[in-house]
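Internal tracking record. Fields below are filled automatically when a chain is submitted to the structure queue. Please do not edit lines marked as system-generated. If the sequence contains nonstandard residues, flag them in the REMARKS field before resubmitting.
Queue: standard
Priority: normal
Entity type: single polypeptide chain
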Amino acid sequence: MLDSRKINIVKFLLQQDDFVTIDQIAQKVKVSKRTVRYDFKEIDNWLINNNFSKLLRIPRKGVIIDLSDDEKDHIIQKLNQSNYYTYMLSPKERREIVLFHILNEEGPTNLLELAEKTFVSKTTISNDLDEISSWLKGFNLNLVRRKGYGVYVDGPEENHREAIAILLKELAKTNNKNYNEESIDRYIFNLKEWFPRIDFDFIKNEIENAQDHLGIKFSYEGFANLLSHLALAIERIFLHKDIEMSKEQLHRLMAKEEFSIAKIIGENISEFFKIKVPLDEIGYITLHLTGAKLSKVNNQEEYLRKNTKLLVIIDQMIKRVEESLQIFISNSTSLKRDLYIHLMPTIHRLQFNKPLQNPLLNEIRTKYKDVFKACYEASRILEYEFNIKVNEHEVAYITMHFGAAIETQTSKVHKYTNVLLVCASGIGTSRLLRAKLLSYFKFFNIIDTVSYQDVGRYMDSSEVDLIISTIPLKETKKPVIVVTPLINQRDIEILSSYLMYKGNYNNIHYDKSTFVMDMIDVISKHCKIENLEGLQTDITSLLNNINKLYRPQNRLIFINNILSKDNIQMKVKCKTWEDAIYKSAAPLLEKGYIAPRYIENIFKKIEKYGPYMVIAPGIAMPHAGVKDGVYKTGVSIMTLDKPVKFNHTTNDPVHTVIFLAAKDNYAHIETLTHLLDILSVKENIEKIKLAKDPKTIFDLLKEKEGTQ
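SYSTEM-GENERATED OUTPUT FOLLOWS
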């Protein structure tokens, strides 16, 4: 038998038309590659036992189910013929099912019944009960085991229902791998398995009527929670497990607008299911109606007047967050409205000690660290004013609203580039070109598309920042970039360079940036982060320093700072590539720019990585790390009397050696960028190769720097 993970692997493979790698499968089912390989053995056995061929596995290609469409259909039928229990349940799935049956039984359950339901031994069930007991304590419930009598849960009915409601969400996820699609009908389908005698169409209709009466729209989560709680209430009433509320709580709930709606729902339930719904149960329905999350309200002005005190508190919270983050939230009106709609039911829930669990808590706490901290402090105002306890899960929901407002605001301050498109006809290829450009560059604002003849009328327009043309243009007053109509990789690189150097990215500051947290989020998926705050600080510092390199006023002056004429050697005789590296390093070594160990570290890197420094045909650029013995950033250039081989497969022999030593990463990046810009042009390489004196090379580099 296959457990749920192996069934998911089989179904995933059945959906593929080509080979899939083990990496892809491991990511899909969230286990290690070794576990996937073990799973393949059991899947092969299952396929053979059911008269199918084994998985086809080919090294460096991957794995595939190489069967006809009819055979694949038969596999799907066999997998789907089984009901929920016929495959081998994982330990987590088994414990959830055992727990549900214990919680929702009218009396005690014996271990043999539970073992038969889940196809395991009584010993396994007994071991499961230890973990189940620990889980129940989180709801102030006790698991009672009495020999010869059975096992049952002891505790308040309200706690029973809370535990079952949380469990139902987990069971829905287990039974439906597409749970995140947030389909109410799909959620109902899952609930029917656990409450077969409940008519969910009736309950759904009651909730929709409640929305209409209250002039609101429940969120998916709010609607799903109401479905669960109403179904659970009906089921528990059938089992004579009525809820009990204190008189004080009940009187508070009876004063709310939602109580009259809950009363109608209770009367309809009584009539439809032929059961009596007690007054305390009506109060409990009211509690869930007032605390259900909302997605919208029909009349915002009227809804905002319901709690003017909350509006004042939200203003204070926004101010507290702004002070903490040292920002100004420009779209605070929209944020205030959204927070009000969120906090109204939240306060109702928390006044009755009914907090929600936020499934994104850890992600939000990591990704929006500073915002989360600021919202945590701001939530103290809520606690004080409404006498409630706001836990981290609720703070995470508040953080989502502030985070969205801040990100929206950040994206709006990005500088757009106003673009004029010029095509040969002005019509034909222009639409395709426009679509391509906007798909690659979201901050382009294309103001018009014109033909060659119409360019002149835009020459004096202040609206145009850049002209992108498919044909060469003469004597234009605006910067022009010529591209192919279909936009190739070279075009993308040129346009990206223009954006980088002309201002779109010059003013980005990464302090408290969500981009930094996005980077940390990616890093955390591949390794364990020991010091989150330290990593955030280091990445922020790195990005801000790199950012400075692209600000024209802060760029290093390449010629004056790191290259002098006496660092250029001409037509030097070298017998080997080792000899060439030693001789090219000599000027920097003599001036004290580098230590002898820097040269040795270059040889170590070559021994480890091969001739990595041969960057272009005929050009070698030996260099090591910034901590490998550099005292001062510098460059030396040496042309060879006769080219020598560096054992590179495509770029040998080498006629010019450019020896690089950078004291820090930023100088390293800047120097490499400048040199590669020059060496990317074949004419420049040829000029360096044919140069007869240092001045020729020095002047070439100085000239090229002036054009950048």
